[in-house]
Write a structure and sequence with these properties.
2 copies of one chain form a homodimer. By secondary structure, chain A is mainly α. The first copy, chain A, contains 7 helices and 2 strands, in the order H-H-H-E-E-H-H-H-H. The first copy, chain A, binds a DNA duplex through helix 3.
Amino acid sequence: MRLSKKSVYALRALTCLGASTASEVVSIHAIARQERIPKKFLEQVLLALKKAGIVQSSRGKGGGYALRVAPAQVTLGDIIRAIDGPLAPLPCASAVSPVKCPGCLDVESCWLRGVMTEVGAEVSAVLDHITLADLCRRAALSQRRSPHVLMYEI
Amino acid sequence: MRLSKKSVYALRALTCLGASTASEVVSIHAIARQERIPKKFLEQVLLALKKAGIVQSSRGKGGGYALRVAPAQVTLGDIIRAIDGPLAPLPCASAVSPVKCPGCLDVESCWLRGVMTEVGAEVSAVLDHITLADLCRRAALSQRRSPHVLMYEI
DNA sequence: TTATTGTCTACCAATTAAATAGGAATTATG
DNA sequence: CATAATTCCTATTTAATTGGTAGACAATAA
């Protein structure tokens, strides 16, 4: 149930883009520096987000990335799915792209898949009602307070 | 967001125990054979479940495992937590045992932790309202139909 | 034409998950 | 008591995944 580092990077990069106006582009370099993310790794993250239709890019000098849709239109679920794949607890229980998992051939696995499909749907529902706009709002709020205070907040 | 093989084994082993009466014990060997789980691996799984207070064991000849609590008293959440650890999407966002994760020192991580703590709580809520009794019921149902039919059911 | 930027693919390193191994401790039973 | 069956515990090995790096290539603005 753990979020990969990759998708955390994606979330941070996207709030970074969400903070800019829609028209202006931000370079990989700038995002990497600001968010302290390994540049070449971030490259792959953004490429995946582009493939998922969440961001758009322009190349060449002065190029960079921008959101392709409004922050309120992108959900946490969209982002995590784009990076980490289906949210289903089991490969075979994915609504998007169900894949027969090993050990899924016999009867026992079948009822498990049933339960897990439902669990996956509920998890998706949770993640799909939190939008990038929400994240940006929270990020902006915490930006305003002192880092030191936040660091030790429970 | 994927379930480990280990916890799938745990779920299957437990439904196996749930199917037996509370008083009778089932040996690792029997469970492993019935559920086609590597015996030595299952050993570790059951040990973890025991440490979590979900099952009890008796050693020596004629020994084995049995549930320590009623199937309706154990939740999916309990089981998965016992095997895979906290359900939180981020180590730092665990209600049970929050651990400072690398990159969690600066301001950006803090708002992420906030969101993820909430997400984790909701996921927990989902998993904690499904009980082992529910799983056993489903397992019993699918047992009654033909394996072949189930195999290709969507 | 050149500097800057994204695109793509392959690769390597580190970590984690899955499985295996083997001996110690415990207990029922002949 | 001796033995076989069983859990307990820890270490090791193997496989898979994740995290990160590298470098050649393509596009574009100036």
